[in-house]
Write a structure and sequence with these properties.
Layout: E1 6-19, E2 26-36, H1 37-65, H2 67-76, H3 82-102, H4 106-124, H5 133-157, H6 174-186
Antiparallel strand pairs: 1-2
Helix pairs in contact: 1-3, 2-3, 3-4, 4-5
Length: 187
């Protein structure tokens, strides 16, 4: 059972030019707006979802476009067949990013991103093995960044579906709803 909370916001807009007979000062006009808590959360959630999903979609495209350069770096880290592995690793990024952007099966998309981050981070950003302090710091920054992104993906897996402003694929359309109502009436 979900609880709803409302917020009332009062604004003082323009000063009313009518004189107050008691003290002859202009009276301000006060407007009141009431918003439900869930309405206040829609825009930040949508913007955050677009940024988060867009980040992974962009990086998935980057993995495919720059697989030779990224593959060489992956091979230097001991990853076999670097170019193929980088291209294959880009697929969960594409799927996960697209899923989050569109709101289509977002729990599966977040799981794809989480799987990518959990598999790649310890191999590619193994700061504990670096002797050079600059390389160690760069890898530690990337490792902890990926850990934070994994936390974000994990948090999104806990959000109930369907998400606000999702692409309405697989949901009953007007035609399906009308057919269902017609069947109920006929029965």
């Amino acid at each position: 059972m979900s609880q709803s909370c409302t917020f009332t916001i009062q604004r003082v807009d323009k000063v009313n030019t009518r004189k107050n007979p008691a003290n002859h000062l202009p009276r301000p006009r006060i407007e009141t707006e009431t918003w439900r808590e869930d309405e206040l959360m829609k825009a930040p959630f949508l913007i955050g979802r677009l940024l988060f999903g867009g980040y992974f979609l962009y990086n998935g495209i980057n993995h495919l476009r720059n697989r030779k350069q990224l593959g060489s770096y992956a091979e230097s880290k001991g990853v076999p067949n670097g170019e193929f592995t980088v291209a294959a690793a880009g697929i969960p990024l594409l799927i996960g990013g697209t899923s989050l952007l569109l709101g289509l099966k977002p729990k599966l998309g977040a799981a794809a991103i989480l799987g990518f981050l959990a598999g790649v981070s310890p191999v590619m950003h193994d700061f504990w093995r670096n002797q050079d302090p600059n390389e160690r710091q760069a890898n530690m920054i990337n490792f902890t960044k990926n850990a934070a992104l994994a936390g974000g993906a994990l948090a999104l897996m806990g959000v109930e579906e369907p998400w606000e402003a999702s692409v309405p694929v697989g949901r009953p359309g007007l035609g399906k709803k009308l057919k269902k109502i017609a069947r109920q009436i006929a029965a």
